Amino acid sequence: MAWKNSDAESLQSADELKRQKRIKLTIYIGIFIVFQIIIITSMSLTVMKVKTPKVRLGNISVQDLNSVQATPSFDTKFKTQIRVKNTNFGPYKFDASIVTFLYQGVIVGQVAIPMSKAGMLSTKKIEVEVSLSSRALSSSNLGRELSSGVLTLNSAANLTGKVELMFIMKKKKSSTMDCTIAFDLSSKKLKSLQCK
């Protein structure tokens, strides 16, 4: 009888061990699922959030700047960088576009931006040479501005492209440039550059 009693106790303790193992396994699976939910939520709130890339003009190196108050007219040639800053965790592939330079809303020159890609968390720098002329201007306040010694121009561009995340998700994003450039006519150098 003692033998049957110990057999029953060992079966009961074996069943109890199996039940405890199942409970532990369920707890581990639950902890794993909660951990995965936390990781997915934090990824979707930080990494998977797509921000709009920024397009700006970089340093301007004036090569030539001529202005005539009597006519009134101006011609200028300078080198600059078009910078596409991508703050996303995936590359930004953008289509070809045009940067337009304006004097009081009238186009005085344009430069092409080739189709390209800004890597993740990086800035794509595109070197360009710009030639601007007041030939397209009819009547304006150009003579008064030239006599003040400062020539103020604006630049505008619109880039369209897609940000690719985790090689599976592509999100369309459009970036705009709005910069104000002021040239000092006496020193023939850049006075200020402000981009919004």
The shape, in one word, is rod-shaped
SS strand fraction: over 45%
Question: Helix and strand succession?
Answer: HEEEEEEEEHEEE
Helix/strand-derived class? Answer: alpha+beta
User: Which parts are unreliable, with pLDDT below 50 for 5 consecutive residues or more?
Assistant: none
Description:
This protein has 196 residues and is α+β, with helices and mostly antiparallel strands. Helices cover 26% and strands 50% of the residues. It is built from two helices and eleven strands, in the order αββββββββαβββ. Strands 4, 5, 6, 7, 9, 10 and 11 form a seven-stranded antiparallel beta sheet that branches. Strands 1, 2, 3 and 8 form a four-stranded antiparallel beta sheet that branches. The protein is rod-shaped, with a radius of gyration of 32 Å. The termini are far apart.
Short structural summary:
This protein is of the alpha+beta class.
Core attributes:
196 residues; alpha+beta; seven-stranded antiparallel sheet; four-stranded antiparallel sheet; 11 strands
Topology:
Elements: H1 2-45, E1 54-57, E2 61-68, E3 73-86, E4 92-94, E5 97-103, E6 106-113, E7 116-118, E8 122-133, H2 142-148, E9 150-165, E10 169-184, E11 189-195
Antiparallel strand pairs: 1-3, 2-3, 3-8, 4-7, 4-9, 5-6, 5-9, 9-10, 10-11
